[in-house]
Design brief:
Butyryl-CoA Dehydrogenase, subunit A, domain 2, alpha+beta, Butyryl-Coa Dehydrogenase, subunit A, domain 1, 3 domains, 9 strands, binds flavin-adenine dinucleotide, Butyryl-CoA Dehydrogenase, subunit A, domain 3, 4-stranded antiparallel beta sheet, 3-stranded mixed beta sheet
């Protein structure tokens, strides 16, 4: 864990203990293996077992269902801390916890009682299956279809880019139950879909960064799912469930952005004191000082926005604008800090022996996932108008 310039959001004592054990785990079991796993694009199976033991798969699941019941604020701090060391690891539990949040918010009592304890222990892991080859931002254009047949539904279609698609067992699956419905969202529903006959993994997708974690196509061919796995037991509420989960999703993407921006800054602060040119450490050259000053300010601003959004979420307030601002700003901060870190490291920044080239490959994903940054700015503008009518 890098030293933060200033601790913005001191957590409660018990939450501080959780953070401390995560930092110890990162130093002992993660940091020494990151370069190898990253460059082999290898799934960190052993670390996943350790994450189960740490309770990460239940971080935001209420304690009554066996989770840690952490606030979004503490959760964001955990995500930031882990992303500083290896951002990919956060993807293994982030979308899993958004799936869990969908069940916790919209599930029937039976669905909560069955799924949440299994999600919390990590026995059932997975994520969100929303995106399709022809529909990402415009989710209402999805084509995966579920038809009711007695006490089951029959699902056909293809999802793509699904995080944890290969190693996960269970997904919050967005489908059309009525493709003719107007408005379109009334014909959309969500299922809690476990892998079974008719539900298979297609290709593993090769990526620029975000290595180690599996991103895959999921293919549904006459997949029979019991009607009892329709989230909330009611058709037509799938988009609402998917979008509701995205607020927490955006806060954690913002926290990942903070983690990357922080790692890029702190690597640069260290390197700039060691690397010498023209008889002095490069941190004594004004051109490098300007970069460090900008990077640190950007990080601090990103953190303030991120924890402001997390606190609003914890108070139960509507926070799509705050989460959108945090996600937009922190992800762009990660991209800019990663590029500046590469400049400060000179040729070594381009080397696979250093971490900087990974930050540079990982950061742009934060601008795309959980709603692109173009969409975030549109959400912010719409909220501004709604909150301030003329
Ligand atoms: C590594 C990775 C992991 C992912 N994990 C998951 C996952 O676990 N589950 C899941 O469901 N999805 C996942 N995704 C998919 C991701 O959510 C989508 O890529 C994202 O929502 C954008 O959709 P798209 O790629 O179809 O782009 P498009 O929707 O085709 O957008 C293309 C461009 O057009 C812009 N654009 C679109 N509409 C508008 C508009 N109205 N106004 C202005 N600009 C617009 C976009 O901002 C973007 O710049 C993942 C993607 C990646 C790369």
């Amino acid at each position: 864990m890098t030293d933060h310039p200033r601790d913005l959001t001191a957590p409660a004592e018990d939450e501080a203990l959780i953070l401390e054990s995560i930092r110890k785990w990162l130093d002992r079991d993660v940091r020494p293996h990151v370069l190898r796993l990253e460059h082999a694009d290898e799934y960190p199976a052993e670390m996943v077992e350790q994450m189960k033991a740490l309770g990460l798969f239940g971080a935001t699941i209420p304690a009554e269902y066996g989770g840690l019941g952490l606030s979004a604020t503490t959760y964001a701090r955990i995500v930031e801390t882990i992303a500083e060391v290896w951002m990919s690891l956060t993807g293994i539990f982030n979308s899993h916890l958004i799936m869990a949040a969908c069940v916790a918010r919209h599930g029937t009592p039976e669905q909560k009682a069955f799924y949440l304890p299994r999600f919390a222990s990590g026995e059932l892991r997975g994520g969100l299956a929303l995106t399709e080859p022809d529909a990402g931002t415009d989710l209402q254009a999805i084509r995966t279809r579920a038809r009711r047949e007695g006490d089951h539904y029959l699902i056909n279609g293809t999802k793509t880019w699904i995080s944890n698609g290969i190693h996960g067992q269970c997904f919050a699956l967005l489908v059309k139950t009525d493709p003719e419905a107007e408005p379109r969202h009334r014909g959309m529903s969500m299922f809690i879909a476990r892998k079974a006959e008719g539900f298979r993994v297609g290709r593993k997708l090769e990526k620029l960064g975000y290595k180690g974690i599996d991103s895959a196509e999921l293919i549904f061919e006459d997949y029979r799912i019991p009607a009892s796995d329709l989230l909330g037991g009611e058709e037509g509420r799938g988009l609402q469930a998917a979008l509701g989960g995205l607020e927490l999703g955006r806060i954690n993407i913002a926290a990942r952005g903070c983690g990357l921006a922080s790692a890029a800054l702190m690597d640069s602060v260290r390197y700039a004191q060691i690397r010498r040119t023209f008889g002095k450490p490069i941190c004594e050259h004004q051109a490098i000082q300007l970069k460090l000053g900008e990077m640190a300010t950007r990080l601090q601003a990103a953190r303030l926005l991120t924890y402001d959004a997390a606190r609003a979420y914890d108070r139960g307030e509507r926070c799509d604008m705050e989460a959108g601002m945090a996600k937009y700003f922190a992800s762009e901060a990660a991209v800019e800090n990663a590029l500046e870190a590469m400049r400060i490291h000179g040729g070594y920044g381009y080397s696979k022996e250093y971490h900087v080239e990974r930050y540079f490959r990982d950061a742009p994903l934060m601008c795309i996932g959980e709603g692109t940054n173009e969409i975030q700015r549109i959400i912010i503008a719409r909220q501004l108008i709604e909150r301030h009518p003329a």
